[in-house]
Amino acid sequence: EPDVTIVSGLKDVVVSEGDDVTFRCQVSHENARDVEWKLQDVALQNNEMNEISVEKGKIHTLTLRKVTEQDIGTVTFRVGPHTSTA
Fold first, then answer.
1. CATH 2.60.40.10 is right for the domain spanning 6-85
2. Would you indicate the residue range of the signal peptide (predicted)?
């Protein structure tokens, strides 16, 4: 299995309370496994508040819906041993 690396990392975002915010991270290979999103070191699951998806096979996206002050913190994308934070 090829070593999947991060080609384009996360970017810092400033957003107003109540808005949605999307983070994108591009990886080197399609169908990457061992992928994880975290907010403030808490693993995120795909649900009504967090939309986790993959576009074009390589662009992993995380959308946080209707953010609140409690959502302030570091977002981390990890694939295998590689991480990107914003």
1. yes
2. none
Q: Are 10 and 86 in contact (CB under 8 A)?
A: yes
**d(Cα 38, Cα 49) in Å, to the nearest integer?**
13
Closest CA to 71 of 10, 9, 19: 19
Radius of gyration of the chain (CA): 13
Per-residue pLDDT reduced to its tens digit, 21-36: 999 999 999 999 899 9
Whether the CB-CB separation of 63 and 47 falls below 8 Å is answered with: no
Tokens read off for 16: 């107003």
Q: Measuring CA to CA, which residue among 68, 82, 86 is closest to residue 17?
A: 68
| Strands 35-39 and 82-85, sheet pairing | unpaired
pTM of the model: 0.94
